[in-house]
Design brief:
By secondary structure, this protein is α+β, with helices and mostly antiparallel strands. It has 19 helices and 10 strands. The strands form 3 sheets. The protein has a 5-stranded mixed beta sheet with strand order 1-2-8-5-3, with helices on both faces. The chain has a 3-stranded antiparallel beta sheet with strand order 4-10-9. A two-stranded antiparallel ribbon has the order 6-7.
Amino acid sequence: MLPQLLFNLWRAHDFFTEILKRHGPTGEFTGPWFTSMDYLVTCDPINVHHMLSKNFHNYVKGPEFRHIFQAFGDGIFAADSEAWKYSRDLFHSLFKQKSFEVFVAKTIHNKVHNGLLPILDHVQQQGRVVDLQDVFNRFTFDNICSIVLGNDPNCLSIDFSEVAIEKAFNEVEESIFYRHVLPRCVWKIQRWLQIGQEKKMTEACKTLDQFIHACIASKREKLSKYNENEMGEAHHVDFLTALMREETAHDDKFLRDAVFNLFVAGRDTITSALTWFFWLVATNPSVEAKILEEMKEKLGTKEKTLGVLSVEEVKRLVYLHGAICEALRLFPPIPFETKQAIKADMLPSGHRVNSGTKILFILYAMGRFEETWGKDCLEFKPERWISEKGGIVYVPSYKFIAFNAGPRTCLGKEISFIQMKMVAAAILHKYRVRVVEGFVATPSLSIVLLMKDGLKVQITKREF
């Protein structure tokens, strides 16, 4: 089956979706015998529920995953069993500290007000086309640097200069995607010869490691000079400082892997979600009108200027929440996931899983099946998330898979929604976003579902 996949690689996500729709939501992908590319492929919610929740301990990331995702080190996304549980419990305890929650919300709020909106004002005044995905990339990169490292690099600037660290993350993620579709022997030879995607991967990882280790060294030096009282409240709530202050001492490798994993989780996924959301809203004017009407009705946004909404205010925007869920359903930031079976098992669909079987979950396809979402599954329809009483409709995570499911459900789900709603409300209230004529939104070939050529738009001020 490999030649057919490579022929359709430019549209890989839609290709897999079409195959699963044609032959059933679960089936086998067979690669050449010497490539170790045989997978059981599924987008069946019942099978997903079984593997990610009910029989969670039998399905792990496995050594093959860690080999492909070596840039992630032993961080939370690649770890299994006790190593994963330790990181999960540690991160959960830090995320749930009230001071950290307040710090994160304040950081996002300030960046929208002092960074994002002024940049869009500048772009609007110049009347030029802007890549909104690039803007979101810079916005989320500044945010995650502030939240994780306690330092804002101010990449979201008027000159839009290239940021080496940001580019390196993108190159690592693209290279990991190619490791999934090329035989292992091919990419290993490329790595040995340092050619193609593997050369990019090596150089990008070197750039990232130098940046992260420099941040760790700087933070250690700063902390060694001051005790907690001298540092003050404002200086000890960023994630790296909190990790270093834990009773259990963590070496630089643990800190490096933790930081790298959090950067991917907190930067790229939010960028992806916001980019596809604004493309969908811009191409569906009726949805845009309903979002604005809800803001006017619930927040009284008649005045010409509206400050960035608070956490409590964005929680009241039910239709906006539904629109974001729809964007995540159709374009999940992580379009596929892999697991490996420890013991033989039988799936609810009747498919046999042998010990060592590799599973490929096509999350992109899960939102596009009529059996799960109805005949209008390809429509952008926020109403499907809103109950008759005007509340949010609950959808189980194994069906709405954007934040994963089971014990590995995303720890940052709530703050992700808050960040996306703050950004969406602030931009939509102040500007009209129009996609440039002739632009075609094409998914990139990466482990994160970004747009291949960015999102080219023109921005005009909304008139009141």
